[in-house]
UniProtKB/TrEMBL annotation:
<feature type="active site" description="Proton acceptor">
    <location>
        <position position="187"/>
    </location>
</feature>
<dbReference type="InterPro" id="IPR010945">
    <property type="entry name" value="Malate_DH_type2"/>
</dbReference>
<dbReference type="InterPro" id="IPR001236">
    <property type="entry name" value="Lactate/malate_DH_N"/>
</dbReference>
<dbReference type="InterPro" id="IPR001252">
    <property type="entry name" value="Malate_DH_AS"/>
</dbReference>
<dbReference type="InterPro" id="IPR001557">
    <property type="entry name" value="L-lactate/malate_DH"/>
</dbReference>
<dbReference type="InterPro" id="IPR022383">
    <property type="entry name" value="Lactate/malate_DH_C"/>
</dbReference>
<feature type="binding site">
    <location>
        <begin position="11"/>
        <end position="17"/>
    </location>
    <ligand>
        <name>NAD(+)</name>
    </ligand>
</feature>
<feature type="binding site">
    <location>
        <position position="105"/>
    </location>
    <ligand>
        <name>NAD(+)</name>
    </ligand>
</feature>
<feature type="binding site">
    <location>
        <position position="162"/>
    </location>
    <ligand>
        <name>substrate</name>
    </ligand>
</feature>
<feature type="domain" description="Lactate/malate dehydrogenase N-terminal">
    <location>
        <begin position="7"/>
        <end position="147"/>
    </location>
</feature>
<keyword id="KW-0520">NAD</keyword>
<feature type="domain" description="Lactate/malate dehydrogenase C-terminal">
    <location>
        <begin position="156"/>
        <end position="331"/>
    </location>
</feature>
<dbReference type="Pfam" id="PF00056">
    <property type="entry name" value="Ldh_1_N"/>
</dbReference>
<keyword id="KW-0816">Tricarboxylic acid cycle</keyword>
<feature type="binding site">
    <location>
        <position position="92"/>
    </location>
    <ligand>
        <name>substrate</name>
    </ligand>
</feature>
<dbReference type="Pfam" id="PF02866">
    <property type="entry name" value="Ldh_1_C"/>
</dbReference>
<comment type="function">
    <text>Catalyzes the reversible oxidation of malate to oxaloacetate.</text>
</comment>
Length: 338
């Protein structure tokens, strides 16, 4: 048995939290030999739901689950934590302006960043799920004085997985045969799902396979622009329309895969995650932007895969998404948060 890990989940009484906790406790995230201690952080209105989930966790008698604590104190929740999954966020209410949303979330992610800086373990790493995830991660990273900002990432793995799922359906192949899809930019409708470098297990490019199937490269390009990109970027709204509420299990699954790959090493090819830019691909330093990333599972976290080229159309889509991240950062700066 490996040593145990302490994992703090914020918004743990919410829907995504409920879909996360049992899989983490079952070993789906850190493996079958790694015991886990769970810290569930909630606001007072969410505490009973989190306590209920804790009772159910006890009733599962998971062999890997060492302890579950529910708290409303960020300092208690992050004290000694090694992994943070920051799910709780303020949803956009009716008539709420973007500045109000950013201010409300700054009031959540700023204090959490400070609590992390104060008490988290030296190797701590966090993934932000709560929206606007990229900018919430930026706020937390800035508030976590003394902690390297690269420890904070934001989730674009669900967008990545959605893109792979759409390609698998179009090509009538298993999702596992597709590698090297990329989500660039913000976790929002401006994201750029890019298949320019994507490949199949048989060595063909995804684009060639699409062109073969759709009757040529022009038809494949039209499908990418008219169907694929809007479908991936708008999938959240599609789920809400069909299911009657937002995606939950797929979001939790993506968060688990994000942390699993970061901690234990990514698999074939690369994946996508929003990480703090060091200027890669011309993205302003410090923005939390989605890139192609790999992890060796050596404690160093995700590294951006550099040197990939864009066609002019792809470059323009990426730049539009980065411009949105810049606008979010500037709006937060205007609030005096950064
Ligand atoms: P969910 O668990 O469904 O969602 C939580 C967050 O994840 C939301 O910000 C949501 O964004 C975001 N998210 C990111 N990607 C996705 C996706 N693909 N699909 C759906 N959501 C996604 O929300 P609940 O309201 O059920 O639960 C939130 C919990 O957080 C509540 O229990 C609340 O009490 C708690 N909370 C805790 C805080 C804390 O610990 N300090 C602070 C604030 C809230 P979006 O809103 O855009 O769907």
């Amino acid at each position: 048995m490996e040593r145990s890990s302490t994992i703090t989940i914020t918004g743990a009484g919410g829907q995504i939290g409920y879909a996360l906790l049992f899989r983490i406790a079952a070993g789906d995230m850190l493996g079958p030999d790694r015991p886990v201690r769970l810290r569930l952080l909630e606001i007072p209105q969410g505490v009973r739901a989190a306590e209920g989930a804790a009772l159910e966790l006890q009733d599962c008698a998971f062999p890997l689950l060492e302890s579950v604590d529910v708290t409303v104190s960020a300092e208690d929740a992050f004290d000694g934590a090694e992994i943070g999954m920051l799910v709780g966020a303020r949803p956009r209410g009716p008539g709420m302006e973007r500045a109000d949303l950013l201010a409300a979330n700054a009031g959540i992610f700023g204090p959490q960043g400070a609590a992390i800086a104060k008490g988290a373990a030296s190797g701590f790493r966090a993934v932000v799920v709560g929206n606007p995830a990229n900018t919430n991660a930026l706020i937390a990273a800035n508030a976590a004085e003394g902690m390297p900002e690269g420890r904070f990432t934001a989730l674009t793995r669900l967008d990545h997985n959605r893109a792979v799922g759409q390609l698998a359906e179009a090509l009538e192949i298993g999702a596992g045969a597709i590698a090297d899809v990329i989500i660039w930019g913000n976790h929002s409708a401006t994201q750029f799902p890019d298949i320019a470098h994507a490949q199949l297990a048989d060595g063909r490019t995804v684009f060639d396979a699409l062109a073969d199937r759709m009757g040529g490269p022009i038809a494949a390009l039209a499908w990418l622009d008219d169907v694929f990109i809007p479908r991936v970027a708008g999938r959240g709204a599609e789920i809400i329309e069909v299911r009657g509420s937002s995606s939950v299990a797929s979001a939790a699954n993506a968060a688990i895969e994000h942390v699993r790959d970061e901690q234990r090493g990514s698999r074939r090819g690369w994946t996508s995650a929003a990480v703090v830019s060091r200027g890669e691909y011309g993205v302003p330093e410090g923005l939390v932007c989605s890139f192609p990333v790999i992890s060796r599972g050596d404690g160093e976290g995700y590294r951006v895969v550099e040197g990939l080229d864009f066609d002019p159309r792809g470059r323009a889509l990426f730049e539009a998404s980065v411009a949105e991240l810049v606008a979010e950062r500037d709006a937060v700066r205007a609030l005096g948060v950064l």
